[in-house]
């Protein structure tokens, strides 16, 4: 391993332990859609069986890029690059826009990939926080103090992983104003749009609010199709072209079969049914999780998430999240994501929308071992 390399602690935790437990609550999605379900929703099975398993269009099939562009105001297929999950999308953006010595400002807690890649590239990374004692609202005064004329990239995540917080319109406007003031790029991770609890309208995208916005999304979370490993970037065409050149080095192209299935999933009628399914799973699971936290007493607390398929549960026992997560894994057979992976050692991220029928038993296991 290269000296000074920062490992991706969250993904390392999951890849090491997720296959060896009885209850997997460290996941970050909803109960996955089966291939059979997608065929029944509208995929043409004969067309899939006749699909040549050759290299597809490297930047994404025209049909799929058209479906994605239709989700964003004023965008065309030329503004879209299809990637291997949102993970490749984020990595390409950082590799393209930020190098050694560049200043990157990142939201925390958040999915820690962008921050980790930036640090490994030698960027000067600064962070601004979400406040758990204020409903996980972002400290935008802190962001304003951090953003300078040297800031190259600002990274946000809304709906937020791990807190479930969705930026409101005023917060989004201020983030955009601060990015514009510094002429900085704004990277918006929007993979949980579509998992909202209290509205049928997906969380708003930053696309169209500022000429230097780059949005990342995927079929993994709100669509229940993480096995497709398919994501995308929406950005100005010159940025898409630059990302495309790096995409050719890293993966060449996303799977032809994945792109064919994703195009089906993003057809308006199919998409609406997939999102309705995910919201139903999210809402049911969140209610179960909140009732459980309330029943445990003063040992746990939770700011109710507005979206996402998990809750970021605060632990008041004094036991660090990593030690507690290891103990739950070994003694209770339950895997949760330690808050230490997000820089919050007094929290656990607990997925509530995967295998919902088994969730009460898994939570009871945790109760017995707190």
Uncertain stretches of 5 or more adjacent residues: none
Oligomerization status of the protein chains: single chain
CATH superfamily of the largest domain: Type I PLP-dependent aspartate aminotransferase-like (Major domain)
CATH class of the largest domain: Alpha Beta
In DSSP terms (H or I, runs of 4 or more residues), the helix count works out at 13
N- and C-termini, Cα separation: 36 Å
Radius of gyration: 20 Å
Within the CATH hierarchy, at the fold level, what is the topology of the largest domain? Aspartate Aminotransferase, domain 2
Order of helices and strands: HEHHHEHEHEEHEHEEEHHHEEHEEEH
SS-derived structural category: alpha/beta
User: What does the overall shape look like?
Assistant: globular
**Number of beta-strand segments:** 14
Number of domains: 2
Q: Biggest sheet, strands in spatial order?
A: 2-9-8-7-6-3-4-5
Q: What number is the mean pLDDT?
A: 96
Describe the structure.
With 370 residues, the chain is an alpha/beta fold. It is 40% helix and 17% strand. The chain has 2 domains: 9-34 and 271-369, Aspartate Aminotransferase, domain 1 (Alpha-Beta Complex); 53-267, Type I PLP-dependent aspartate aminotransferase-like (Major domain) (Aspartate Aminotransferase, domain 2, 3-Layer(aba) Sandwich), CATH 3.40.640. It has helices spanning 9-17, 35-41, 45-49, 62-69, 85-97, 113-120, 140-146, 169-182, 237-250, 256-265, 268-296, 321-332, 359-369; strands at 23-24, 80-83, 103-108, 124-131, 137-138, 151-157, 185-189, 213-218, 231-234, 300-302, 310-315, 334-335, 337-338, 347-351. Strand 6, helix 8 and strand 7 form a beta-alpha-beta unit. It is globular and about 55 Å long.
């Amino acid at each position: 391993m290269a000296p000074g390399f920062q490992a991706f602690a969250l993904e390392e935790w999951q890849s090491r332990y997720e296959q060896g437990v009885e209850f997997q609550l460290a996941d970050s999605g909803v109960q996955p859609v089966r291939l059979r379900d997608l065929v029944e929703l509208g995929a043409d099975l004969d067309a899939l069986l006749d699909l040549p398993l050759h290299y597809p269009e490297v930047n994404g099939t025209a049909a799929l890029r058209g479906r994605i562009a239709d989700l964003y105001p004023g965008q065309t297929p030329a503004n879209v690059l299809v990637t291997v999950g949102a993970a490749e999308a984020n990595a390409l953006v950082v590799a393209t826009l930020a190098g050694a010595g560049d200043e990157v400002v990142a939201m925390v807690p958040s999915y820690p990939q962008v921050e980790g890649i930036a640090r490994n590239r030698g960027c000067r990374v600064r962070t601004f926080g979400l406040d758990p004692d204020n409903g996980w609202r972002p400290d935008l005064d802190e962001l304003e103090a951090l953003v300078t004329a040297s800031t190259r990239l600002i990274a946000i995540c809304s709906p937020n992983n791990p807190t479930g917080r969705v930026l409101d319109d005023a917060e989004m406007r201020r983030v955009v104003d601060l990015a514009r003031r510094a002429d900085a790029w704004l990277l918006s991770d929007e993979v949980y749009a579509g998992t909202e609890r209290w509205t049928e309208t997906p969380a708003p995208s930053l696309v169209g609010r500022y000429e230097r916005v780059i949005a990342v999304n995927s079929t993994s979370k709100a669509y229940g199709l993480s096995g497709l490993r398919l994501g995308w970037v929406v950005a100005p065409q010159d940025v898409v072209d630059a990302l495309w050149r790096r995409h050719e080095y890293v993966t060449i192209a996303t799977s032809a079969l994945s792109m064919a299935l994703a195009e089906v999933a993003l057809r308006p009628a199919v998409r609406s049914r997939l999102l309705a399914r995910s919201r139903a799973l999210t809402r049911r699971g969140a209610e179960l999780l909140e009732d459980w936290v309330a029943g445990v007493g003063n040992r746990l607390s939770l700011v109710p998430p507005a979206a996402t398929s998990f809750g970021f549960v605060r632990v008041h026992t004094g036991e660090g999240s990593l030690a507690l997560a290891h103990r739950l894994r070994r003694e209770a057979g339950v895997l949760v994501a330690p808050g230490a992976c997000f820089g919050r050692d007094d929290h656990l991220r607990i997925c509530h929308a995967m295998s919902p029928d088994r969730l009460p038993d898994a939570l009871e296991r945790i109760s017995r071992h707190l």
